[in-house]
Each structure stands twice: as C-alpha cells, then as structure tokens.
From TrEMBL:
SUPFAM superfamilies hit by this protein: MetI-like
Keyword Membrane: yes
CDD domains per record: TM_PBP2
Residue ranges of every copy of the ABC transmembrane type-1 domain listed in the record: 72-287
Membrane topology listed for this record: Multi-pass membrane protein
Main localization, broad class: membrane
Family affiliation: Belongs to the binding-protein-dependent transport system permease family.
Name recorded for this polypeptide: Sugar ABC transporter permease
Superkingdom to which the source organism belongs: Bacteria
Cell compartment(s), UniProt: Cell membrane
Amino acid sequence: MATDRPLSLFRNMAAKIAAIPMILTAMVVFVGGTFWTITYSFTNSKLLPRANFVGFDQYERLWNSSRWLVSIENLMIYGICSLILSFVIGFLLAALLDQKIRYEDAFRTILLYPFALSFIVTGLVWQWILNPDFGIQFIVRSMGWESFAFDPLYNPKIVIFGVLIAGLWQGTGLIMVLMLAGLRGIDQEIWKASRVDGIPAWKTYVFIVIPMMRPVFITTLVIVASGIVRLYDLIVAQTGGGPGLASEVPAKYVYDYMFQGQNLGQGFAASTMMLLAVAVVIIPWAMLEFGGKKRG
C-alpha cells in the first residue's frame, strides 16, 4: 500500500506538468490578489494603495454606514427569496418536463433561453416591462383597469422585488436544467416500485427522489448562492441603486467606493466581507463533497 503511493505520483506526468503554469497563475493572481486585498483593507488607502495601517477602522466605518447596512438587508431579502423561489420553480418545471411531454426539447430551450442573455440585457428588458409609462401598468390600464398600479422599480419599499423578478426570469432555467439532469439520473425501477405499492407521486418525490438528489441540490445551491453575493449587473441596469439607495447591494458599494469615491481602503474592506460571505458557502460545500468522498 505504501509503495503504491510514490508510484501514483508519477502517473499522468505529462498532464501534471502541463497544469503547472495554470496552478502558478491561480496562486499568484487569485490567492495573491486575495491576500493583497485583505492586507490593504486595514489601511487608509485612498486613490492609490499605501501601507498606512489603521487597524479595523475601515471595518468599523463600514458597519456604521447606513448605506452598507441597506445593501446587506437588500442582499438578504433578494438572496432568501431567490433561493427559495428558484429552487421551487426550477424543480417543478423539471418534474413536469421529466414526464416525457411532447415538444420537450422546445420547452426546455424556451425556458433556458433567458440564461443565455447577460444580466445587463435582462435588466434593461425588465426595466422596460416594469416601467409604468409603457410597461405592464400601462397595458393593464389601457384595458380599462384605471386604478391598477404596478411600478416596483419606482417604489423604495418593494424595489428589490422588482429586481428579483428579473433575476428569477433569467436564472430559473438553469436550475430547471440541473434538476432535470438529477431527475433523469434516478433509476426508473424506483418509480415502478412506487406505482406497484400505490405510493402517490408527491410522496415519491418528497421522501425518495429529493433525498437521492442531494448532490445536485448542494451543487446548485453553491452556484446560486455565489451568484447572489455577486449581484451587481441587474441593479445597475434596472435601478442604478435607486430610488435613492433603496436597491443598493454590496457589489455596487464596493465599485462605487473603489472607482468613484476613490477610497480603496473602504472598498477593500467591503470586498473582504463579500469574500467572507462566499467562503461561508463554499467551505461547508467542499467539506461535504470532498470530505465525504475521502471518508468513503
């Protein structure tokens, strides 16, 4: 057993040697850049980075900023709603397509098509659709319902839900495809056995199929959660952070302070907190996936 390990190190040497430049690039650019960002988040860098350390001053200022707190609140609302709704809608669509319906390929293409668009395009399209002057509100009122009001992008209390609509429209198709792939991987004998035993379809999904799809759910959760933390394009395209600061998100806060406010230290502190949020999602997933495989 011990003699096999040294020999295994020399297997596929050509592939391992070819991967060295990529590994070094990742170490220097990504890991090095991460440590550089964290280090300078403890400085009072303004237009240019400078090693004038001020301890946790930038973080204290960050968490005392009402703008940052609003951005965190918006991200939590968007993130929780997006996770729940995208998983529920995506799984239901996948379950319907898994019934071998007619024109399945056409429906799958139509539902996945929004994911092919950029967030900027999606944001602009839904900005037009939700515009009260010529969007949904205008169309409904022109049909006779003069009292109908639907302008979420212009209402500070619900503007984040207007962004959520666009996000769900674009991202739910990807969730559907991932769930459909998981459903197609379920042995058909399970369905036959449940029919023979007279088990309702919904109980088969809840108690048998969904637990078997745990790896698919975890992988999908990581993909969706990392995208939520990086939410920026939709906000810029739809609202620009407005009305006022009602739709502010952390990624926009970082961009504004680093490139418009010329306060690199504050931008680095905010981006470090975003990195921490991503790590909270990625690390448990890695431990569940790779740790479980290692123990197995």
